[in-house]
Amino acid sequence: MPALSHVANAAVSGVLTGTVYGLMALGLSAIFGVIRLVNFAHGELMTLAMYVAVVAFQGLALDPFVTMIGAAAVFGALGYALQRGFINRFVGRPEHSQMLLMIALAMILGNALLLGFGPDARNVPTSYQLDSFELGPMLLDKARVYAAGAAVIATSLLAAFFRLTLTGKAIRACADNPIGARVAGLPVAHLYAVTFGLGAASVAVAGCAMVPLIDVTPGLGPGYTLLAFVIVILGGLGSMVGALLGGVVIGVSEALAGVLITPSAKSMVSFGLLVLILLARPQGLMGAARR
Amino acid sequence: MMIGKLIGLPGRRGRRALIAGAAVIALTLPFIASSYVLSVVTLALYLAYVGQAWNVMMGFAGQLSLGHSLYVGLGAYASAGLFFHTGIGPWAGVWLAIAICAGVGAFIGFLAFRLRVSGVQLSLLTVAFAELARIGFDHLEWLGGPGGLFLRVADRSRIDLLGFRGPPAMYYYAILALVGGALGLCTVLLRRRAGYYWRAIREDEVAAASLGIDVFRWKMRAVILSSAMTAIAGVFFAFYYNSLFPEQIFSFGRSIEIVLGPVVGGVGTLVGPIVGAGALVLLGDGTTEVLNRLGFDVPGVKQVVHGLLLLLVTIYMPHGLWPPLARALGFGPRKI
């Protein structure tokens, strides 16, 4: 049995990582909740953002937390264009057809990264990589604290956008009732594109925030896609609060499983939770029962 | 029909000639093709067979599994583990594999269908079980763990039918027979009650139930048949490739690979999985080979080509390559 402080340390760092997971899943949840699109390319988008951060660091010596701002803007614009120019045409298609479309995009993107950067792992050795904050008996990695901070800021901005702005309210109206929104004259195609843009921007921030914490390889995509799905299902598809909560739950359970069982059993807990939730409460922890 | 006339195929006789020609080429391939071509065709047939098995569940009964690598992996580990530890060969092992996979398929199907998990949630449930198996087998040292399970490589010069060890041609004929068998089985099933019930469920579950179809029972039958058929593919995989790694065989990517053939060829069609697997392997491995000859060794090209093909088919031919091709060749007016 590991020491209590060790376990507490793992739990807190799990909360921090979980916040970033939550932001990543928030993007997936928004895209599903509004567009009803199952974005199987989510993890690949995240990996792309990571490589943007790696290239910016190696080429321009930019810190990932600086790159993050530009990356969010670029991903937002690209996401808007992708949805507006391409994916919108497939909104009426059957669910499995949309899933396959996104899987195709994921395969192309993920393997294009492999072609472009090779299979070797890359990391970003920031100056604060090995530093940590002392909080009583606990040590918190500086990079992890910054990452969580960035995720909290991005999440708050998103929440404020959806709650306070007119566009945000219109998007929520779209999510509640797409036909009603169309009848009321809302520009649904534009709102869908804004939503995908915001989802892509969240994933860009989450990706850049993760870079100082992990080694980046082109094969990370499917793992993150599945992780995002686990979190979103756990929290409730389409629920934003649920996505954040799910992120923290998964972050903590992974960290604790790493300490208490064995590091390689980390994702076993996540997938076990996924199975339980799917069977026992398919609407998720925070989702309202549908139909 | 149109193309048939253009290239001068006289209707039914031409189609018979086409089928006979394909059969002759398929049966004599090991004598006329190089070992490289034979290995590529074997791979294509393997994908056609697992695609056919997956198609029973999704194409016929409309239940989308994105975790079929689970059954390939379980089938492979069941037969390979039995052989590795006791020396009992694949002819007995295949029954163990089928029993395990059908049991696991029944278990997952029972949970999912009783608790009314469907759509995206069902797909994610199948992925979750495959991932759990991947992690589980990584910790199962008795079957090699993450380091892999290796079978003694076959003596390629001697044909040992009883031990299923022999030259590449033997494996080629085995997988060819499996594809033929699966095609025959699916053809029969589609023309019988099962085919009509499954397609009714696929199109509209509520309507099917209101007609008196026991939806739960028929969905269960589809899953069990699909997983049992996939188990045999696992046994083939184990004894053909001789090495098994949990990280590879249970991976999400492998599940997607299984889905690609039938989707590209035509979900729910009989010949679609074969056409799709052929197109994928031809274009994917073809591109890789051409690049290799030109001196480029680029991992990932094959998957990019597969992704592009999937993308183009999803956009422009949502019913897959086979239905329009069948119409052009004049193979019957029916959708299948």
List the helices and strands and how they pair.
The complex is a heterodimer of chains A (291) and B (336).
Chain A: H1 4-35, H2 42-60, H3 64-85, H4 95-117, E1 132-135, E2 138-141, H5 142-164, H6 166-176, H7 178-183, H8 188-210, H9 221-235, H10 240-260, H11 266-280
Antiparallel strand pairs in A: 1-2
Helix pairs in contact in A: 1-5, 1-8, 1-9, 1-10, 2-3, 2-4, 2-8, 2-9, 3-8, 5-6, 5-8, 6-8, 9-10, 9-11, 10-11
Chain B: H1 2-6, H2 11-32, H3 35-60, H4 69-86, H5 90-114, H6 119-138, E1 149-150, H7 168-191, H8 193-203, H9 205-210, H10 215-241, E2 243-244, H11 246-249, H12 252-265, H13 272-293, H14 301-316, H15 322-329
Helix pairs in contact in B: 3-7, 3-10, 3-12, 3-13, 4-5, 4-6, 4-10, 5-10, 7-8, 8-10, 12-13, 13-14
Could you spell the SSE succession of chain B in H and E letters? HHHHHHEHHHHEHHHHH
Strand content of chain B: under 5%
Spatial gap, N to C terminus of chain B: 16 Å
Largest sheet of chain A: 2 strands, antiparallel
Strand order in the largest sheet of chain A: 1-2
N→C terminal distance of chain A:
46 Å
Mean of all residue-level pLDDT scores of chain A: 88
In CATH, what is the class of chain A?
Answer: Mainly Alpha
Shape of chain B: globular
Characterize the structure shown:
The complex is a heterodimer of chains A (about 290) and B (about 325). By secondary structure, chain A is mostly helical. Chain A has a single domain (about 5-280), classed as ABC transporter involved in vitamin B12 uptake, BtuC (Orthogonal Bundle), CATH 1.10.3470. In chain A, about 70% of the residues lie in helices and about 5% in strands. In chain A, strands 1-2 form a two-stranded antiparallel sheet. In chain A, helix 3 runs antiparallel to helix 8 (about 190-210) and helix 10 (about 240-260) crosses helix 11. Chain B has about 325 residues and is an all-alpha fold. Chain B has two domains: about 1-30, no CATH class; about 35-330, Orthogonal Bundle (ABC transporter involved in vitamin B12 uptake, BtuC), CATH 1.10.3470. In chain B, about 75% of the residues lie in helices and about 0% in strands. Chain B is built from 15 helices and two strands. Chain B has helices at about 1-5, 10-30, 35-60, 70-85, 90-115, 120-140, 170-190, 195-205, 205-210, 215-240, 245-250, 250-265, 270-295, 300-315, 320-330, and strands spanning about 150, 245. Chain B has a two-stranded antiparallel ribbon. The longest helix of chain B is centred in the last third of the chain and has 27 residues, at about 215-240. The two termini of chain B are about 15 Å apart. The interface between A and B is large, with 40 and 42 residues.
